[in-house]
Structure formats: structure tokens, C-alpha cells
Design a protein that fits this description.
The chain is an alpha/beta fold and 380 residues long. It has 13 helices and 15 strands. It is 42% helix and 23% strand. The strands form four sheets. The protein has a five-stranded mixed beta sheet, sandwiched between helices. Strands 13-12-11-14-15 form a five-stranded mixed beta sheet, sandwiched between helices. The longest helix is centred in the C-terminal third of the chain and has 25 residues. The radius of gyration is 23 Å and the shape is globular.
Length: 380
């Protein structure tokens, strides 16, 4: 087999896996039709995967008396696995997923040092332990609160971690038996299957995450658009209040300075001094029956600021879906304030074509980092 033929065969194998992972095609004929390949070519690929334990035959689908019955195929999802890690200032969170992003293993490890070398040493030890436990791992995805070059895997700057120009991928790859993928934590969360974006609308959508900071990711043609300096989608630094508080970026009135979790906590603490951190805030939100009226004023104001930013996103990018991932997804006051602001500020026609979805995801960044490894594997 020539090198060119072998490469083409490998590409077709990856395309077959991607179709089966999506779950829309489950017979040799359906896969061949979807990929524009001959049934014989697909049969050779499927037979190889069955022999390797990657695919199994699971039954026969009757054609209602027309044509031959089709043998149904299913991925053995644990034949390939992926590690996803979210780095934060005081801890890192890890997951191991199967090929369809189902959680198989998870946990977190506290960290006290700012030195990136100590972080990386701990990361390498953890990854080696997980790979020993899950030898089917294809690679390691790492999500970082930072400006990241996703091609070279360099963390250029992170105010949360106090890191500058850390060649994270290079150092990880030198000590691990698999390759590492490094990406911004919000962009990782945006591509996670749990992001809430329906697959059929993933070709043009926007993901907005309200957390320790506020970040965004623009998805074009089902892939994250990073921009010339990897900062595309940074909605947290849209100005929504010109005379507002000073943001860490040096500007006044950025969305992040007004609606990030620390900014919201600071406002709520004036009402409830006992609320000190995110966990206290979550418990406070659960007890909605006892929330004071002034809390709803904070939520209404915050929703208005988010709606102002979303209106600009709709006008500039015209996405089919906007997902707002935040702890406030069940608060009607917040949601209605966002929606009414968008209705009043954005042009009517593009707004009618944009679906706005409110969610609160869990493990999104680490699962998304693991999923990025799967996507890269399918592109090789």
C-alpha cells in the first residue's frame, strides 16, 4: 500500500468513527452513502474496527420488505478514551471520558503554588497515573484561564495564574506517552457536548460563560474561531457601562467588572455579609423563597448588562444560537431582563433568528478539553 493510499485509508477510518460517534449512521450502507465511498471500502474499514474491538455489530434493521436487512453497528466507546484537565489558581480538576464524552473518572487536586513548574510536575504525575489506569487514552486536553496559542500550546498570559509565556504543551509532551492539547478554558467549555448547543446549530453559535471572569467563544463551521491573536469572542471586555467600575483590563464598565461572579458577590455581600464564596452563593440562590427584593434588583441590572452585550453579539456575528452558561440559569428575573434588553436593543430580524439558551454546565471545561483531543484525533 502506497503512502498516499494509506493516508487516505486512515482519513476514511477517522471519518467513519466521527459518523458513528454522532450516532446518525449505523450501518455500512448509511456510512458509505454519507461519506460518498463505496460499500466495499467501508466494509473493509468496519471489519478492521470490529477485529480491533472498536466497533461491534448489534443487530439487524429490517427494511420493511424492501432490500436486504442492514446490520447495525455501534462504537465500543471505551476503546478510545481521553483525559481533560481544568487548571485553576488553587486546584486542578480532571476527567477521563470515553469516545462519546461519557465521564469515566473524575476528581480534583488542590494546589498552593504559583510556580508553573510545580503545576506542570503535578500534572505530569497525574496524567501518568491516569494513563496507567486507562491505557486506551488518546491524549490529554488542558483548559487554562489564559490567553493561549492553541496550535503551539503556549500559555502567553494568565492573570489568574500569574503565568507568562509558559510552553505547556512542549513540557507535557516531553514527559508523556501521548500528545497534549492546550486551550482557553471558555473555548474548551464551548465545544463540550454539554455546552447546550445542538449539533445541527453548531456551525454558527456563540457561547458566553459567567464565572470567575466572563469569556466567550464564537463557533464557526463547528469549530472555535480564535482570531489573529487568539482573543476572538472575549465578550467579557465589551463596555456596557461607560462610567462603571474599573476592570482588570484597565477599561471602565466592562461586562466582566459588572457581572462576573466576584462582581456579583461583592454586590450581594452588602445584603448578606455571610456570603463569602461561590458555594455560599449557590446555597443562597437555592433558597429563592427568602431572597430580599434588593437581590432581584441586582439580578435585573445584571441581566440588562448581559442583554446589552448579547445584543452586540447578535448584530456583529448573527449566530443561530447563543448559550449563556451561568449560575443564574433558573432565575426568571435575570433571564427576562436579558431577553427584554435584547428585544429592545438588537435589530428585530436577526434577533428572531437567534435562539438564546440559559444553562449551568458542570465539568464543561475539562470535558471540553478531553473532547478537543477526540476532535484532533479525527482530523489526523
Amino acid at each position: 500500500m502506497s503512502k498516499g493510499t494509506a493516508l487516505l485509508r486512515q482519513q476514511n477510518e477517522k471519518r467513519t468513527l466521527a459518523l458513528l460517534r454522532a450516532g446518525k449512521h449505523s450501518s455500512r450502507q448509511e456510512i458509505a452513502t454519507a461519506l460518498g465511498l463505496s460499500k466495499n471500502t467501508i466494509s473493509l474499514i468496519v471489519d478492521k474496527f470490529i477485529k480491533d474491538g472498536v466497533i461491534k455489530e448489534v443487530g439487524i434493521h429490517e427494511q420493511g420488505g424492501v432490500g436486504r436487512p442492514r446490520i447495525q453497528l455501534r462504537l465500543q466507546t471505551e476503546a478510545y478514551k481521553s483525559i481533560g484537565i481544568l487548571i485553576q489558581h488553587s486546584y486542578f480538576q480532571y476527567v477521563v471520558t470515553d469516545y462519546c464524552s461519557t465521564l469515566l473518572d473524575k476528581g480534583s487536586i488542590p494546589m498552593e503554588a504559583d510556580d508553573p513548574e510545580q503545576y506542570i510536575e503535578k500534572l505530569i504525575d497525574l496524567c501518568n497515573t491516569l494513563i496507567e489506569r486507562h491505557p486506551e487514552v488518546l491524549g490529554v486536553g488542558i483548559a487554562v484561564p489564559a490567553l493561549v496559542d492553541p496550535i503551539e500550546g503556549v500559555v502567553h498570559f494568565s492573570s489568574h495564574l500569574s503565568w507568562r509565556n509558559v510552553r505547556l504543551k512542549e513540557q507535557m509532551d516531553a514527559k508523556l506517552p501521548v500528545q497534549t492539547k492546550v486551550l482557553n478554558l471558555v473555548k474548551a467549555a464551548a465545544i463540550a457536548p454539554s455546552s447546550g448547543i445542538p449539533m445541527e446549530h453548531a456551525s454558527n453559535s456563540f457561547y458566553l460563560r459567567i464565572d470567575e471572569g466572563i469569556g466567550g467563544a464564537h463557533i464557526m463551521d463547528s469549530q472555535i474561531y480564535s482570531g489573529a491573536s487568539w482573543t476572538a469572542g472575549e465578550a467579557g471586555h465589551l463596555c456596557v457601562e461607560p462610567d462603571g467600575p474599573l476592570c482588570s483590563c484597565g477599561q471602565k464598565g466592562c461586562l466582566e467588572a459588572l457581572v462576573s461572579i466576584p462582581a456579583i458577590l461583592k454586590q450581594i455581600q452588602k445584603l448578606e455579609p455571610a456570603i463569602k464564596d461561590d458555594n455560599d452563593l449557590q446555597r443562597f440562590l437555592v433558597s429563592q423563597e427568602t431572597l430580599p427584593p434588593s437581590f432581584y434588583e441586582i439580578m435585573q441590572r445584571s441581566g440588562r448588562y448581559v442583554g446589552m452585550a448579547v445584543s452586540q453579539i447578535i448584530l456583529l456575528l448573527n449566530p443561530g444560537y447563543i448559550v449563556i452558561d451561568s449560575p443564574f440559569e433558573k432565575l426568571d428575573t435575570f433571564k427576562q431582563s436579558v431577553l427584554s434588553t435584547v428585544e429592545n436593543r438588537a435589530l428585530k430580524f436577526p434577533t428572531e433568528k437567534t435562539n438564546i439558551l440559559f444553562i449551568k454546565s458542570h465539568y464543561a471545561s475539562s470535558i471540553g478539553a478531553a473532547f478537543a483531543v477526540i476532535l484532533d484525533f479525527e482530523k489526523e
